[in-house]
Design a protein that fits this description.
single chain, 77% helix
């Protein structure tokens, strides 16, 4: 007769989930530490340096552009640093498409990370104002997220908030993609000119 593993055993599903989460958190922390200590974060926070690096990558430039967005935007490097020079680097269509892909994937990192690692732990600790906002997002669903992303663009706390909601993941991700289209178009096509007028 097989004996079931003790409750505290690493063989239990609960323990395995927590071990996996701990491993992911440690991995992310290690990646962040490596990026920060390597100077990569500071180097590519400078728009001229970023543009020169991508421009010098030749045929690998588009892949490097998207990869750096996915790596650095979740670490709080402003997405504008990528989107503003995108059409100069890759042409109008290429710049818009690559900015949208990179921005969406960067947001997905924050959304999925918050959903998988933080929802159970943090949803009960959200301040009342954020909890009300989360409830309104869930109530209004897809179009509420579209409107929020259109206004906030690639703001990381919005990724986390969207990830913490009770909405289905596919709804959040689809709404994020649609919501990123208007600001991406405006910023890429004007080279940040609209932001200069607003700010």
């Amino acid at each position: 007769m097989e004996l079931s593993p003790p409750v505290g055993s690493f063989e239990s599903p609960h323990a395995r989930r927590w071990l996996l989460r701990a491993a992911v958190v440690i991995g992310i922390a290690g990646l962040v530490a490596a990026v920060v200590t390597s100077g990569l974060l500071g180097r590519f926070s400078d728009q001229d340096e970023l543009q020169a690096t991508i421009d010098g990558a030749g045929v690998w430039g588009p892949l490097l552009f998207v990869g750096l967005m996915v790596l650095l935007v979740p670490l709080n490097v402003p997405g504008l640093l990528f989107v503003i020079p995108a059409t100069t680097l890759f042409g109008t269509v290429g710049g818009v498409v690559l900015s949208l892909i990179g921005g969406f994937l960067a947001s997905t990192v924050g959304i999925v990370g918050a959903r998988r690692l933080g929802r159970d732990a943090f949803i009960a600790r959200l301040p009342p104002k954020l909890r009300r906002l989360e409830a309104r997002l869930c109530e209004r669903g897809f179009w509420a997220v579209v409107a929020l992303r259109s206004v906030t663009f690639l703001l990381q706390p919005v990724d986390w908030l969207c990830g913490l909601t009770r909405m289905p993941m596919r709804t959040v991700l689809a709404a994020t993609f649609v919501g990123l289209i208007p600001p991406t178009l405006v910023i890429a096509l004007t080279g940040g000119g609209v932001l200069d007028l607003v700010l």
